[in-house]
């Protein structure tokens, strides 16, 4: 992840440990996915055995983990970081190139 925005220079980590709260947001996303997968399996697969539920839920959550990680951080920034996106401002800033970090 970039340390700051390549367009406007906004630093993405307002304080040390800021993204620890994103774990709770990610947990909420995962819980919603578990319930949604369970309900879909119940109605579409006509209440399969428990091992089908467990395997399906685990596969879906593992497959979506990269998205959950990124979107939880974005939601954390928008809700608690005081960062908002203004497309008019972004279009007026001079573009400069920032190299992506190696880590």
SSE sequence, one letter per element: HHH
Rg of Cα set: 19 Å
Please state roughly what percent of the residues sit in beta strands, choosing from under 5%, 5-15%, 15-25%, 25-35%, 35-45% or over 45%: under 5%
Q: Structural class from helices and strands?
A: mainly alpha
Mean pLDDT: 83
Largest beta-sheet characterization: none
**Count of helices?**
3
Uncertain stretches of 5 or more adjacent residues: none
The overall strand count is 0
Helix percent band: 55-70%
N-C termini distance = 8 Å
Large-scale geometry? elongated
Protein name: DUF983 domain-containing protein
Organism: Hymenobacter duratus
Pfam families: DUF983 (PF06170)
InterPro entries: DUF983
Structure notes:
With about 100 residues, the chain is mainly α. The chain is built from three helices and no strands. It has helices at about 20-45, 50-80, 85-90. The chain is elongated and about 55 Å long.
Which helices and strands, and how do they pair?
Layout: H1 22-44, H2 50-80, H3 87-92
Helix pairs in contact: 1-2
